[in-house]
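Notes to self after the call with IL:
- keep both proteins in one doc
- input above output, always
- annotate only the second one for now

Protein 1:
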Amino acid sequence: MNINKFVITQNKKKKLLTPGPASLLAENISGLRPCFGRGDKDYTKLESIVLNKLKKISGHRYIARLQGSASLALEILTTNFLYGKVLIIDTGVYSERIKTMSKYNKKVFKKVKSVESVSWTKIKDFKKNFDWIFACPTETSIGLKVPISDLFRLKKRCKAKLALDATASIGLEKNHDLSDVLAYSSCKGLFGLTGASFIAFNNYPQNEVESFYLNINNHLESKMTGPYHTILSLYDVLKEYNNFKYSVIINKRKISKIMGNQMLYPKVNQPLLCTYIKKKLISSNNKIIFYKTRANLPGSVVCHLGEVHLKKKSRGNILNNLNYGK
């Protein structure tokens, strides 16, 4: 069985309405090969190509690659970059996570001196000086987007630096370059396999971190095993990135057309990755895998990565399997 037939067979077994990883891609597999992080010129070359493309996507000068989830990258970001007064933009489950990390920094590492939060609905006129603003521009737990341009204007008013949890927005949303530092994973809007995460930034952090694993410099210097195979899974994907992204766009457009009257947020707050529908959705197709959000919602969050393998042949047909519940 060749790779394409294998991928077709595997994708027929389940239909994902979840936020990542995406449906299985032939390109996830085609780049895999034996590799090692030191002395392997072939791997070093391919890793450099992938990391340079990722820097171009986010618009940042430097990048660290880590073996682990976006939560690890966010923990390292918090430990190495954040200091002084920190403002968290309250959007839901994932903003609560970065608030917990910031408070832990304050308690243990003592670089952060205070942690405050403000609802995303109140940032338009908010003005108070901070050292850092930390936000999650796409909050998958409630299917919400807070435009990065809005966060940038807030940053300017507050005379702060901007840190982003870009796990659900990277590649899909605009203006990541307006942030000072961000963290994200390999498996959502980048369409790679799970297992890698990244921190992109323009200026090196000033915090001194004694922990070996939490010190970003040790990752930059490749002092531990890296996400070698996950990076290789991105090599062929990034060559055709816009074709894969097309599928996400088509699915978003279709759900907006067929369920637009049940969408809670205005267009400006609609992320490409996912959509919050006010009613619970059900399906008679037992192959459908719904997203079980960690938020307690009366409706459903539908994510749009389930047809990524179809590239420009995607028509959003996965959405035909959905019906409103009671």
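Protein 2 (the one to annotate):
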Amino acid sequence: MVLYLSSQQHTNLLNFMAEQEDALPVKKMTGNFMLKQFVVYDMRNFSHCTELVLDRIAFGDEDGDFAHAIEEFLTMYNARVTVICEGLKEHDPLCRALLDAGVGNIVTSVEIGEMQEEIRQSLGSRGMTRFSPRERERPEAQGEHYRFTAESVRIAMVGSQRRIGTTTAALGFAAWLGSVGASAAYVEKNGSGNIPYLRDAYEMDEEAGGFRLERIWYGEQAPGAGFHFLIEDCGTMDMETEADILLLVCGTKPYEIVHTMNLLEKYGTKEAFIVCPFVEKSLRDTYEAALRTDCHRVLFLEYQPDCMDGSPNAKVFKNIIERYIAWD
């Protein structure tokens, strides 16, 4: 998602993006801002954004403070920054400060059409190539980290029976998404009442009718916009509405198969991933051949002892949401 902080003068400047089929969605905020305050107090609500576009005249910061706030932002968030500053010259101190901060996407044209073309370049995979910003040295991220082209993607997880591992898989999926740079919401739709226990055990902060732990929000009702992914833990309940991705959590033991087949028949014509926990590796080919259909793809979950650690199933989770990863 593109977060655009705009002045009244340029409030419609990014409207042209709505006409592009592959354009990221734009969240626009119009008004007068102090960038340092916004980064410290407000940006965490938009931590899922992959592009930040700043209209310079919307900010009351001095030039040096403005550039410094951007530098601080880039140490905290994994997003590109584009600055709109009409008429800025390369020899101007602000231009030099932006380049030193690591910003190469600087829109300087004064004609609307030319400004929009520079914005289009800035938001492209290569960014603006006209300037040479300072290469920033960042601490190595622990494990993989991605940018996502996703906005409120609904992932519904339905179990074939109780205690099959649906909640453990859903919590692990949400935790993994947060660990690789996505913002996610875990929505408890199964009525189990587990969230208060998670809140107390992990000392979560209360937020927007639910609770937050780092990049993950936990609650019983789907939150508003502002997340890459919504993980809906349906338990054995039916989905209320269509999901973007459907996961059917199924058992393969003799006393579980009857429940598995009932669930697969119920969702027989819907595109879905069948995810099976606790399957011996030597038997996986057999179960995959038995359960796979034109609509259903079979994946196997590894043992996940900690419900809030999705790393044992990182490959499976990545496989499921790979089409939403920006590979530029």
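Annotation: The two ends are 15 Å apart (CA to CA). The chain has a mean pLDDT of 89.
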